[in-house]
Structure formats: structure tokens, C-alpha cells
Design goal:
Elements: H1 3-15, H2 18-25, H3 29-43, E1 48-51, E2 54-57, H4 59-86, E3 90-96, H5 104-115, E4 121-127, H6 130-138, E5 144-147, E6 156-171, E7 181-183, E8 191-195, H7 201-210, E9 217-222, H8 225-233, E10 239-242, E11 252-259, E12 263-271, H9 278-290
Parallel strand pairs: 3-4, 3-5, 7-11, 8-9
Antiparallel strand pairs: 1-2, 5-12, 6-10, 6-11, 6-12
Helix pairs in contact: 1-2, 1-3, 1-4, 2-3
Family: Belongs to the LysR transcriptional regulatory family.
Organism: Anaerotignum faecicola
InterPro entries: LysR_HTH_N (IPR000847), LysR_subst-bd (IPR005119), WH-like_DNA-bd_sf (IPR036388), WH_DNA-bd_sf (IPR036390)
Length: 293
């Protein structure tokens, strides 16, 4: 049994005439008769009652027709879906840090959709911190993620796409609140609200303090930068965080770090050994073209 035989069977069931069916299928009538005979022999049942020039389905033929039509519909839908994918259409599963959802990711997604407006493309957006994002990438939950870079991730390709300055934030009534710049050593006497181990920023800020050869006084460890900012605003400590517009709406003083200077880099991450569908490949190239760091 093959796909041609099934399609011949459906066409004959529709026309109820071997000659008309053969004409529609653009094959010789004997070839159609042979194909139907082979199908009946394999199934072990008679599918058509042949009367004069017409052919009508038997009871078994009607039953088999319902199965074949459903199967061919599923197959045709699958073929159509693959054709759309091959043309660069489909859904992109995108994971990213919440802070990148303010401008970078919406701008990139919208720009790509505008450039590919003749194609049917959808995005699914997910936010998390770096470590779970990268694990989701490995588990193939996401097609790509935008996050900070972690060391020893040999299976992941990291491409820089954006930068963000690190700043010190303190409560408005803090002794450092009258400063515009600060040396990191001046923050050591005060309790810090610090990034937790699972955050991609932890190693970045650890290295910042390594440059001055000191360790901060860590009072709290939190994964989310926005939560850290909220705690600082309520007087739980001071913190080194990436600059973000939300800080302007909180009751904190933003202070530039004069030494040591450090900026946070964001990366587009994809699996090195994973096949990327055409739509994901095109979006990856779009990001590379529009995000030159």
C-alpha cells in the first residue's frame, strides 16, 4: 500500500467512474484499475462494486474511505505546515531577561516582523534569569535566549548584542546619597543587597569587587534586579545593579561608579549543535545585523 494508491482510491470514490478518475489523475485507466486491485488484495476486501461503467463503494469501501480521508487531511496539513516553515514562517520561542523586555526585545521582534510582513511569523516570549534561561535553551524549550554570558558553556554560542552600565543605588537618605560618583571601596562599610548565585550578574559583580581586592558586606541575596532595587528603596541596603529606567521611578539615588568601571554585556545565545528552523535562522541574522556591539 502506498500514498498513490490511497489518493487514487479517494478520487475514484468521488467520481464513481474509472475513466473519469483516470482522466483527473492524468494516468491510464489500466494503471488505475491495477492500483485499486492491488489495494483490495492487500486489504483483503472488495472496495468497489463495478456495474457497467460506474463503480460504487461497498460497505467496507465506505468505512475505509473515512479513514483514508482523515489520514490524507492530516498528511496534507503536515505537508502544508512544512512548506510554510521552509519559506521562513512559523513560531519563534524566545527567552530573555526581564530588563531586556523594556526596549531591546520588543524593538527587535517588531523590526523583524515589519521586515518579514509578507510571512506568517509569531513570537512566544518568556522571561527568567540567566541560568534557567540557558537550561531552557539546552532543554529545547526556547529557540534562543537573550541573557548574560556564563563560563564553561561549551555547547552554547554567545553573540554580544547590547551593553548596560553598572551603577550604585542607595536610599535617598543614605550617607552616600549626596554623591554623583563613587569609588567601590567607599561602599564596603555598608550592607549590600546582592545578586544570588543563580543570577548571571553574580559573577560580574564578584569580579568588580575582585578588582579592588575586597568583599562586600552582603545582607541579602536576590535573583531579580528589580527586586533588589525595590529593597534598596525601602532601606534594606545599597546595591550595584545594571542601569534601568525603572530606577528613575523609585526612591533611590543613582550614583556612577568611578572605579573600577564595568559594563554589563548582553548576549544572544543559541545551541551550537542544534538545527535552527529557517525563521529562527533569519531572526538570528537580523539580530546580528542590527545589534553591532
Amino acid at each position: 500500500m502506498n500514498l498513490y494508491q490511497l489518493r487514487y482510491f479517494v478520487t475514484l470514490a468521488e467520481t464513481k467512474h474509472f475513466g473519469k478518475a483516470a482522466e483527473r489523475l492524468c494516468i491510464a485507466q489500466p494503471s488505475l484499475s491495477h492500483a485499486i486491485a492491488q489495494l483490495e488484495a492487500e486489504l483483503g476486501v472488495v472496495l468497489f462494486e463495478r456495474k457497467n461503467r460506474s463503480s460504487t463503494l461497498t460497505k467496507e469501501g465506505l468505512q475505509f474511505l473515512s479513514y483514508v480521508e482523515k489520514s490524507l487531511e492530516i498528511l496534507d496539513n503536515g505537508i502544508s505546515s512544512m512548506a510554510h516553515i521552509s519559506r521562513g514562517e512559523g513560531c519563534i520561542e524566545l527567552g530573555f531577561l526581564r530588563t531586556l523586555g523594556l526596549s531591546l526585545i520588543p524593538e527587535l521582534a517588531n523590526g523583524f516582523l515589519q521586515e518579514q510582513r509578507d510571512k506568517h511569523i509569531q513570537f512566544k516570549f518568556y522571561t527568567d534569569v540567566t541560568q534557567p534561561l540557558l537550561q531552557g535553551l539546552k532543554d529545547e524549550k526556547y529557540d534562543m535566549v537573550f541573557c548574560t554570558q556564563l563560563e564553561n558553556e561549551k555547547t552554547i554560542e554567545f553573540i554580544p548584542v547590547s551593553k548596560q552600565d553598572l551603577v550604585l543605588i542607595v536610599p535617598r537618605n543614605h550617607p552616600l546619597a549626596n554623591r554623583y560618583t563613587v569609588d567601590l571601596t567607599e561602599t564596603l562599610p555598608y550592607p549590600h543587597v546582592y545578586f544570588a548565585e543563580k543570577s548571571g550578574l553574580r559573577i560580574v559583580i564578584d569580579r568588580l569587587f575582585e578588582k579592588i581586592g575586597k568583599r562586600p558586606n552582603i545582607a541579602y541575596e536576590i535573583q531579580e534586579d528589580q527586586v533588589i532595587a525595590g529593597l534598596v528603596a525601602q532601606g534594606f541596603g545599597i546595591a550595584v545593579v545594571p542601569y534601568m529606567e525603572e530606577l528613575l521611578r523609585l526612591n533611590v539615588k543613582i550614583i556612577q561608579i568611578s572605579y573600577p568601571y564595568w559594563e554589563r554585556n548582553f548576549y544572544m545565545a543559541t545551541l551550537k549543535d542544534r538545527y535552527l528552523p529557517p525563521v529562527v535562522q533569519r531572526f538570528k541574522q537580523f539580530v546580528i545585523t542590527h545589534c553591532r556591539v
